[in-house]
Design a protein that fits this description.
The protein is of the alpha/beta class. The chain contains seven helices and six strands. The strands form two sheets. Strands 3-6-4-5 form a four-stranded parallel β-sheet. The chain has a two-stranded antiparallel ribbon with strand order 1-2.
């Protein structure tokens, strides 16, 4: 089955419609699945570089600070006790800690399709014929994006990123241009508007279909 996506011209006006896969852009909203996909993606991007010192890593004397009884103070065995200031942590973080989440490929594809479908329902996803500029000038690319009439942040997805588009867009704080293979779930939900080229729609259908 197919559905029609909003196709806009260079002035941001609806020009026609573009036929796309209903399984990719017409899927029901599945909030638990989207949450799981985004959480797993962020967790898999974490690097276990944090580390804390345990009791055995603290370089302090192992001598008993004072005798067991008769001093009026609490019992103490070593100065590297986690209860003392400067002592080791009880359960220290290790750089070998694994934060990755297992996510099936079918679940990932269904989650991304659910995000794209929700963007269509909310009117935040638009399609253009192609994206091209004559020179690698930020001013020229900014004028082109302004002509589309978007307010807020914009994610532009194209099938192939050439030098003119890359150099012209990299200094715009509210615009991010990516190739289809670089798009991830977090980026899709982070931007207020998503702009796809026809070729990018075809690639999404090939990758996620």
């Amino acid at each position: 089955m197919t559905m029609d996506l909003k196709l806009i011209n260079d002035n941001g006006k609806p020009a026609a419609t573009h036929t796309a896969s209903d399984a990719l852009f017409g899927r029901e909203y599945n909030e638990p699945l989207i949450h799981q996909v985004i959480t797993a993606f962020q967790a898999n991007a974490r690097q276990g570089t944090r580390a804390q010192k345990g009791r055995g890593d603290i370089n302090k004397s192992h001598k008993k600070p004072w005798r067991q009884k008769g001093t009026g103070r609490a019992r103490a065995g070593q100065a590297n006790s986690p209860l003392w200031r400067g002592g080791g942590k009880i359960f220290p973080s290790s750089p070998d800690e694994n934060f990755s989440h297992k996510l099936n490929r079918k679940m990932y594809r269904a989650g991304v399709a659910s995000i794209l479908s929700q963007l269509v329902r909310e009117g935040r996803l638009s399609v253009i014929d192609q994206l091209a500029v004559d020179s690698p000038k930020t001013k020229q690319f900014a004028q082109k994006m302004k002509g589309y009439g978007f307010d807020g942040t914009v994610l532009v997805v194209t099938d192939k990123l050439d030098d003119n588009i890359y150099l012209g867009s990299r200094n715009l704080p509210n615009v991010l241009v990516l190739e289809t293979r670089e798009v991830d779930p977090v980026t899709l939900v982070r931007f207020q508007h998503v702009l796809l080229t026809k070729a990018a729609v075809a690639q999404f259908e090939e990758i996620l279909g």
